[in-house]
TrEMBL record:
Domain Putative regulatory protein FmdB zinc ribbon: 1-40
Any Pfam family the entry gives: Zn_ribbon_8
Origin superkingdom: Bacteria
Organism: Caloramator proteoclasticus DSM 10124
SMART domains: CxxC_CXXC_SSSS (SM00834)
Protein name as annotated: Putative regulatory protein, FmdB family
Lineage: Bacteria, Bacillati, Bacillota, Clostridia, Eubacteriales
Length: 60
C-alpha cells in the first residue's frame, strides 16, 4: 500500500490516493479513469528531487 500522486488527463486535477497494487484509480473531481501517475517531490516540500537523490529516503 502506498500514497501515490496522480494527475487527471481529462480535467487536470491533481490528487493523491492510497492504493493497493492494481486497484483502479479515478479522478475524484470528474470520475474519469484517464489518470497518470505523478512521480514525487512537490507534495513533500522537496521540489528539486526527482526521486533518485542519495538523501531520497525522506522524499517519497
Ligand atoms: Zn478529472
Amino acid at each position: 500500500m502506498a500514497l501515490i500522486d496522480f494527475k487527471c488527463k481529462e480535467c487536470g486535477n491533481e490528487f493523491f490516493e492510497i492504493v493497493n497494487s492494481d486497484e483502479k484509480v479515478v479522478c475524484p473531481k470528474c470520475k474519469s479513469d484517464n489518470v497518470e501517475r505523478v512521480y514525487k517531490g512537490k507534495f513533500y516540500g522537496k521540489g528539486n528531487c526527482s526521486g533518485g537523490c542519495s538523501t531520497c529516503s525522506g522524499c517519497h
